[in-house]
Amino acid sequence: MLNETLGVVYERPHTLTDVITHYCPGCTHGVIHRLVAEVMQELDIQHETIGVASVGCSVFAYNYLDCDFCEAAHGRAPAMATGVKRVHPDKIVFTYQGDGDLASIGLAEIVHAASRGENITVIFVNNGVYGMTGGQMAPTTLPGMKTTSSQTGRDVVTMGFPLRMSELLATTGGASYIVRRSVHDPGHINQTKKAIKKAFQVQMHGLGFALVEILSSCPVNWGMTAHDALDYIKEKMVTYFPLGDYKISDAVKALK
Q1: Per mean pLDDT, which range of 7-21, 85-99, 161-175 is the poorest?
Q2: What is the pLDDT of residues 66-122, one digit of tens each?
Q3: C-alpha closest to that of 72 among 107, 108, 35, 97
Q4: What residues contact 122, with CB distance under 8 A and at least 6 apart?
Q5: Is residue 147 a part of any domain in this protein?
Q6: Are 110 and 210 in contact (CB under 8 A)?
Q7: Which of 10, 24, 124, 212 could form a disulfide with 220 if both were Cys (CB 3.0 to 4.6 A apart)?
Q8: Domain tally, the chain
Q9: Long-range contacts of residues 83-89, Cβ cutoff 8 Å, at least 24 apart
Q10: Adjacency order of strands within the sheet including 68-71
Q11: In-domain check, residue 2
């Protein structure tokens, strides 16, 4: 018999569908989905929210987040979200994108959406690799990191340096909230949830473009165990992509 002093400390949010995800073992997309779902439930915006998922591992977000969704072509989620938000300014519109999608084929889309100050929220999952298509080098692949298309490691002389998207987008005049977080341990997961919540609140108050970059793991394509992949985020990715707040407007700072 359950001790009466015990209580439920966690339940699946009703904004997260009751299905098994397709993600590889150790992938942290599922963690990020849960955080987005919890934030939608806590802000009571489930039925007012429209998500836009682009091509990549992120594309199946509509199977797991219980809100209205539409699918964009590769890299075009910010453009589609711009159209949706302008037609439905009363809705909460967000994109859910990976680094190969957002920082490569969709680079122009995200830069111009930020520059225009579109009142949308972007959840940017950075695992430094093309996950869905076989583990090729992405714009965010670290120097020296081996991928299926950089089998001796990324050579910055011939392949260029990884893009630091939060730093780049923070230079745009229309951006109001640009931060980078991680999900490699419970403490950082909690910080990431707070950032996601703030990013949605920015939109709810009409304060402009908000983006949360989240350092995430891809154990299978990295060729690591799930545990080692989390250590890789902490020891390697955070070194090149420092966590922190890259742009917070005065209006956002005034939010409670």
Answers
A1: 7-21
A2: 999 999 999 999 999 999 999 999 999 999 999 999 999 999 999 999 999 999 999
A3: 97
A4: 78, 94, 95, 97, 102, 110, 113, 199, 209, 210, 211, 212
A5: yes
A6: no
A7: 24
A8: 1
A9: 84/50, 84/52, 85/118, 85/119, 85/120, 88/50, 89/119
A10: 68-71, 49-53, 92-98, 121-126, 209-215, 175-182, 244-248
A11: no
CA nearest neighbour of 78 among 60, 97, 59, 62: 97
Angle between helices 107-116 and 77-87 (to 10 degrees): 30
> What is the structure's pLDDT at 132?
82
Structure tokens at 145: 């990191």
DSSP code, position 188? H
Domain interval for residue 164: 29-253
Region for 143 from its dihedrals, namely left if φ exceeds 0, alpha if ψ lies in -120 to 50, beta otherwise: beta
Residue 144 within a domain: yes
Write the DSSP symbol of residue 131. T
Tell me, what amino acid is at 60? Answer: F
Residues in the chain: 256
Amino acid at 10: Y
Q: Which CATH number fits the domain that encloses residue 186? A: 3.40.50.970
Domain presence at residue 77: yes
- Among 249, 247, 238, which Cα is nearest to 212's? 247
Residues ≥6 apart with Cβ < 8 Å to 10:
none
- Separation CA 3–CA 22 (nearest Å): 36
Q: Give the model's pLDDT for residue 74.
A: 92
At position 139, the amino acid (one-letter code) is: P
Token pair for 115: 């520059």
Beta-carbon-side half-sphere exposure of residue 224 (alpha carbons within 13 Å): 18
Closest among 20, 31, 67 to 46, alpha carbons compared: 67
The per-residue pLDDT for range 134-153, each reduced to its tens digit, is 879 999 999 999 999 899 99
